[in-house]
Design a protein that fits this description.
This protein has 11 helices and 12 strands. By secondary structure, it is α/β, with parallel strands linked by helices. Pathway: Porphyrin-containing compound metabolism; protoporphyrin-IX biosynthesis; coproporphyrinogen-III from 5-aminolevulinate: step 1/4.
């Protein structure tokens, strides 16, 4: 008889032979920064997550640094929006000012700057609009301009999330042309058109004003297409590739990790977070057990970087262990 239970007799034994272990250094915590003063707005659909003005951002930054989390993913919410999303590449924009503040206060904290136009456009789409269509090539120079502006502010990693074709190449060339050779690109390479983003759109004020994003974000029925997207981004100069969302796309994460020798990130998105929080609040699940099982599944699938709103909770649980 093969007695596999010998390796499960107690927690010490189980820990010794555990194949997949979560480390706080692998976690990235998303934050939302908005124009204004004395703002700390709870996001109703995302319990525990807030929008902060820069003057109150230190409250969250201190928690992040004390937790041991090494990186944040920053999203800016501007007061002014226009057709071309000019706030995205304004050197004095909300995200740029927030990055400068963070780097001054916490220079060792790794800052990943999301690059997209949706939070800054009056129509809520990720690119330039003409006759109701999102224009690909006309959007690329603006994304590249935003990347350089964020790099100047002090971002360590540029993360284009727009899903325009060719944007990694455009950004890499513009960064290099401005002397930012050492700034890495984390491409949202396999970003699906997903129902799991709804709470985020409330948090970032980024819902599209008309239509949807299916002409540029991926069809959730497609798995092999993700390999083509990742391959293209790596050829154009991406250093890290991302799959988003995570839990409904574990097969995609595994496929990407098995196919490419590069760091793979996975974004455990707002809807995935909110569903766990809602179920836990109703007493239907044990939050810690569910979160750790989910995050372990994401890592087991092949992700080496996990972006999650649970990061602060996970860091605390790991310290308790």
């Amino acid at each position: 008889m093969k007695r596999l239970r010998r390796l499960r007799v107690n927690e010490t034994m189980r820990s010794l032979v555990r194949e997949t272990k979560i480390q706080v250094s692998e976690l990235v915590y998303p934050i939302f920064v908005m124009d204004g003063e004395n703002i700390k707005n709870l996001i109703p659909s995302m319990p525990g997550i807030h929008q902060f003005s820069i003057d109150r951002l230190n409250e969250e930054l201190e928690r992040i640094v004390q937790s041991g989390i090494s990186g944040i993913l920053i999203f800016g919410i501007p007061q002014h929006k226009d057709e071309e999303g000019s706030g995205a590449y304004d050197d004095n924009g909300i995200t740029q000012r927030a990055i400068r503040y963070i780097k001054e206060k916490y220079p060792k904290l790794l800052i990943i700057a999301d690059v997209c136009l949706c939070e800054y456009t009056s129509h809520g789409h990720c690119g330039i609009i003409k006759n109701g269509r999102v224009l690909n090539d006309e959007t690329l120079p603006l994304l590249a301009k935003a990347a350089v502006s964020l790099a100047k502010a002090g971002a360590d990693i540029i993360a284009p999330s727009d899903m325009m074709d060719g944007r990694v190449k455009a950004i890499r060339e513009e960064l290099d042309g401005n002397g930012f050779f050492e700034i890495a690109i984390m491409a949202y390479s396999a970003k699906y058109s997903s129902g799991y983003y709804a709470p985020f759109r409330e948090a970032a004020h980024s819902a599209p004003g008309f239509g949807d994003r299916k002409t540029y974000q991926m069809d959730y029925a497609n798995g092999r297409e993700a390999i083509l997207e990742v391959e293209a981004d790596l050829e154009e100069g991406a250093d890290i590739v991302m799959v988003k969302p995570a839990l409904a796309y574990l097969d995609v994460i595994k496929g990407v990790a098995d196919s490419f020798d590069c760091p793979v990130a996975a974004y455990n998105v707002s809807g995935e977070y909110s569903m766990v929080k809602a179920a836990a609040a109703n007493g239907w699940v044990d939050e810690k057990k569910i979160v750790m099982e989910n995050i372990t599944a994401i890592k087991r699938a092949g992700a080496r970087i996990i972006i999650t709103y649970h990061a602060l909770d996970i860091a605390g649980w790991l310290k308790e262990a």
